[in-house]
Design goal:
The complex is a heterodimer of chains A (261) and B (386). Chain A has 261 residues and is α/β, with parallel strands linked by helices. Helix content of chain A is 27%, strand content 25%. Chain A has a 9-stranded mixed sheet, sandwiched between helices. A two-stranded antiparallel ribbon of chain A has the order 2-3. Chain B is of the alpha+beta class and 386 residues long. Chain B is built from 11 helices and 10 strands. Classes of the chains: A alpha/beta (261), B alpha+beta (386). The interface between A and B is medium-sized, with 13 and 16 residues.
Chain lengths: 261, 386
């Protein structure tokens, strides 16, 4: 079985993110770039398929040359090979443009299963996995909190607000996973050492035959016109206990008013 | 003095793994004198213990710099010595076996050490012979294919968890050799024996890892467990001293980093007289000074590690790194306690634990004063004082 795991380089989730007012993209200089933490769940699921079903796993990243450490980081978990799409024309692509590039890059590989994280921690659109599946004409099994492969059949538990649906399809298919699906491992010492010598192929949009009129900031369907800082947190309500028992009533009223009870 | 991408990757990975054990984990294990098995297994299972063991024996074959970066990150995570000591000896202490052990001994010991299954402790110090190593009184007497070991070792860290001990003995009495450093012999003995008696030593800090007094009461060990030639033990031991100082220097740095992180966090958040206490220069300056000292000490420690790995003699650099890092780490831990005021004395703020452990680094593996003796004699060319 061949599995592909698309990953993304994002600004450190814990860091303070800034948007460059000139081109309205995330300022990548001001904060360390890391492998998107949601991808770690996709990688873990792929590693389990590798261990249990001898799957061959390739990581795929679209991003500039400077993003190569993120591919190596993904490989350090034990994945087999990497593909990186590097092309200046991709800069500023929206979710749809990114999906176009990913779909072409995936189509150039042989695979039975694609495992995405359900969202990236910077943009959080959750659009890309489904868009890629649509472009490739493959079943999309999104928000998976559980995944099972039996022959050429895949079953996932698709998470929603009230629980989950059991969704099945045949392979090949595109899956996106949520963080409830597993507990990602840490890269091992040997994994980090081996990552350097794993095969890594670099492709351009030309190599992949991508229609450049559909990618890049000029061709984005979604445009950011304005942005502003997150509003400061509103101060909470403080209930003072004067010993009369009135505080308990106030607390109860507040809980009712906020519909917690 | 930039680190390579690989060194940075390794360091980041250690940081992430170590961070999965929080400061409360260490507080609890320290308070209960409980060996941190979960932590040890997490690092062993991910292959970290073999980082500096040669690749042919299942290790990573990296140098003292990578091993140092690893232990520094472990210490800085808040694990401090409680996290470093369980791994320290496997990380580099076995280089005496790597360099001087027989083929059979290497093949027996190094692979299980690299995976973390085999724990080894290090027995040099004796109640009546600390730094004056040539006066050790533990005797090893040849008897056919065996040696019979009798004597008393002290401050043997992790003896209770270890299956084997590297032990320095005297095979020829001191008055029968040309030089006092001759006639000493190193063995790697099994501790699971009725002739071995352990007594834990109650101590000030690093209480998750117990140190022991070890009595060898006629322990029989095959001649094949000898490391190197008979009588060459002191010279063999010397090979390991500089890397050990470099490693411990980095561990001391890590403790200082953990203490500063805590102190800065507290100085930002603790409001007194309507403002964070860190706004007061009386609080800020000692921390600024402490981090400045740490950064300077770090340069010497890295320099020593890089030079050692490049094959240079590093007596000067390793000793100075040990002195500077122990000093800077302790100053940082002390400043961190002071920043916390009375709360610095409470266990739940962690800095008292760092303070107790940073204090150890000025004593081990060698006192600050003995380092200055080395520098006086070997760097400045002054007459030997002892």
């Amino acid at each position: 079985m061949k599995v592909l795991v698309p990953v993304k380089r994002v600004p450190d989730t814990a860091g303070e993110k800034k948007i460059d007012p000139n081109d309205r993209t995330v300022d990548r200089e001001s904060v360390e770039s890391v492998l998107c933490p949601v991808n770690e769940f996709a990688i873990e699921e792929a590693m389990r398929l590798k261990e249990q079903q001898d799957a061959e796993v390739t990581v795929l990243l679209v991003g500039p040359e400077s993003a190569q450490p993120v591919v190596r980081k993904a490989l350090s978990y034990g994945l087999d090979a990497g593909v990186q799409v590097v092309d200046d024309a991709v800069v500023g692509s929206d979710a749809l443009g990114t999906a176009e590039v990913l779909a072409k890059a995936l189509a150039a590989e042989e695979f039975d299963l694609v495992i995405f994280g359900n969202q990236s921690t910077d943009a959080r659109t959750c659009l890309v996995p489904a868009a890629v599946a649509e472009i490739l004409g493959l079943p999309a099994l999104t928000y998976a909190r559980h995944l099972e492969i039996d022959g050429d059949q895949i079953t996932v538990h698709r998470e929603h607000e009230e629980g989950w649906d059991v969704v099945e399809s045949s392979l090949p298919a595109v899956v996106s996973v949520v963080e409830a699906i597993n507990e990602p491992r840490y890269p091992s010492f040997k994994g980090i050492m081996a990552a350097k010598s794993k095969p890594l192929e670099v492709r351009s949009l030309d190599d992949l035959d991508v229609d450049t009129s559909r990618v890049g900031s000029d061709n984005a369907a979604a445009i950011m016109y304005e942005f502003r800082d997150r509003p400061p947190k509103e101060p909470g309500t403080i209930v003072e206990d004067d010993g009369s028992g009135a505080a308990a009533t106030q607390l109860a009223d507040w809980l009712v008013e906020k519909k917690f009870v | 003095m930039d680190l390579t991408d690989q060194q940075q990757d390794l360091r980041r990975a250690v940081r992430e793994l170590a961070a999965s054990f929080d400061e409360d984990y260490w507080l609890r294990h320290d308070a209960e004198s409980a060996f941190p098995w979960e932590f040890y297994h997490a690092f062993a299972d991910a292959g970290w213990l073999g980082i500096a063991i040669p690749e042919e024996y299942g290790g990573g074959g990296l140098g003292v710099l990578e091993a140092s970066l690893m232990l520094e990150e472990v210490a800085a995570s808040g694990a401090a010595m409680n996290g470093c000591s369980p791994m320290h000896l496997t990380i580099f202490g076995l280089n005496t076996v790597v360099r001087h052990g027989s083929q059979a001994l290497r093949a027996e010991v190094l692979p299980p050490a690299a995976t973390g299954e085999l724990h080894v402790c290090f027995g040099v110090t004796e109640p009546d012979a600390g730094t004056d190593t040539t006066r050790i009184s533990t005797r090893a007497v040849r008897d056919g294919d065996e040696y019979v070991l009798t004597g008393r070792k002290v401050w043997i860290t992790k003896a209770g968890e270890s299956q084997k001990m590297l032990v320095l003995t005297r095979t020829t009495p001191r008055d029968e050799v040309d030089k006092p450093t001759h006639g000493l012999t190193l063995f790697l003995v099994d501790l699971d024996d009725d002739a071995v008696h352990l007594t834990a030593i109650p101590k000030m800090g690093r209480n998750a890892v117990t140190s022991y007094e070890v009595v060898l009461d006629g322990l029989r060990t095959p001649a094949a467990t000898r490391v190197g030639e008979e009588g060459q033990g002191f010279r063999i031991l010397l090979d390991g001293l500089n890397p050990e100082r470099i490693l411990l220097a980095h561990e001391a740095l890590g403790i200082g980093r953990a203490a500063i992180r805590r102190a800065v966090g507290y100085a930002r958040e603790r409001i007194v007289f309507d403002r964070p206490i860190g706004a007061n220069q009386g609080i800020a300056f000692p921390l600024a000074e402490a981090v400045t000292r740490l950064d300077a000490a770090e340069l010497m420690a890295r320099h020593a590690a890089m030079r050692y790995d490049a094959g240079h003699d590093v007596g000067r650099e390793a000793n100075m790194a040990k002195w500077l890092c122990a000093d800077a780490g302790f100053a940082a831990a002390d400043a961190a306690v002071q920043t916390h005021g009375g709360m610095g004395y409470a266990r739940e703020f962690h800095v008292e634990r760092y303070f107790r452990e940073a204090r150890l680094m000025r004593l081990a593996p060698i006192s600050q004063e003995m380092v200055l003796n080395y520098v006086s004699q070997h760097v400045l060319g002054l007459p030997r004082s002892y």
